[in-house]
Design goal:
The structure holds two protein chains of two kinds.
Chain A (H helix, E strand, L loop, with lengths): L1 H5 L1 H9 L3 E8 L2 E8 L2 H14 L8 E7 L6 E4 L6 E4 L8 E5 L4 E6 L5 E5 L5 E5 L3 E3 L2
Parallel strand pairs in A: 2-3
Antiparallel strand pairs in A: 1-2, 4-7, 4-10, 5-6, 7-8, 8-9
Helix pairs in contact in A: 2-3
Chain B lengths: L1 H27 L20 H11 L6 E6 L2 E9 L3 H9 L5 E4 L2 E3 L1
Parallel strand pairs in B: 2-3, 2-4
Antiparallel strand pairs in B: 1-2
Classes of the chains: A alpha+beta, B alpha/beta.
Chain lengths: 139, 109
């Protein structure tokens, strides 16, 4: 219960921003918060609160796993630091690169194949798998 | 023998009467803002070390200064990272269903 109190602001924010399938569980002195956010902005806000409560994520007492739900056809912005985003033939960094999406480019999410890898398509027609961490759905 | 059976039936019905409604309440409790947040008591899914090892390989690909090791569900991060890149890495790692993430990174401003 102590961990839920420590991260109460974060839990409350997840509730008020209507994170779906929200689960808050404590197990072996680690708090696990799981759910699905409606946009990248909601997820970013939760991570900002996490970083405020536990600066630089040093405590190792929370696993925050709120992913962004994107229906097929949802637009997403490429949020790499500055480089292009690799588009790959299959879901994995060992897969060949079949195209690239530019930093800040808007692409279409075709399928959330896994939490880590999404099938996307660019306006110029490149289609393949990209690492979801660098995609922010704009819904 | 018959009395023992009746006792058993009584005890069984008492137990089911006590536990079933409380299970139902747990699922529907969404408005409570106090610490009654453990609405789902299913154990947390932890990925296997093989899944985590595969996952951290993809997650750390763009972080050349970072090493991630996996042991018994725990992911330990060592090396160097710039502070503004830390949230991106942590988001990727924590989405892999680790048991715990030990952040031993040296953080550069």
């Amino acid at each position: 219960m102590a961990l839920q109190q420590k991260y109460q602001e974060l839990i409350n924010a997840a509730k008020t921003s209507e994170v779906q399938n929200l689960q808050v569980r404590e197990q072996n002195n680690v708090l696990y918060i799981d759910g699905e956010a409606s946009s990248g902005a909601v997820k970013d806000n939760l991570w900002n609160i996490y970083n405020k409560i536990d600066p630089d994520f040093r405590a190792g007492d929370l696993v925050l796993n709120v992913n962004v739900k994107a229906a097929s056809g949802t637009k997403a912005k490429v949020v790499t630091k500055e480089s292009n985003l690799n588009i790959r033939k299959g879901p994995g960094t060992d897969q060949p690169i079949v195209g690239k999406a530019a930093h800040n480019e808007i692409v279409t999410v075709l399928n959330q194949t896994s939490q880590q890898w999404w099938l996307i398509k660019t306006d110029s027609g490149a289609e393949g798998y990209a690492y979801s961490q660098y995609l922010s759905p704009t819904a | 023998m018959k009395r023992v059976f009746i006792h058993l039936v009584l005890v069984a019905s008492l137990i089911s009467g006590m536990t079933l409604p409380s299970c139902k309440n747990k699922k529907t409790d969404t408005t409570n803002t106090t610490t009654m947040d453990t609405t789902n008591t299913a154990p947390v899914e932890i990925a296997t070390d093989d899944q985590l090892t595969n996952g951290v390989k993809d997650a750390t690909k763009d972080f050349p200064g970072v090493t991630a090791t996996v042991n018994n569900g725990e992911v330990t991060l060592t090396g160097n990272i710039k502070r503004d890149r830390l949230p991106t890495l942590m988001q990727s790692i924590q989405a892999l269903h680790p048991k715990k993430v030990n952040n031993n990174l040296t953080i550069e401003p």
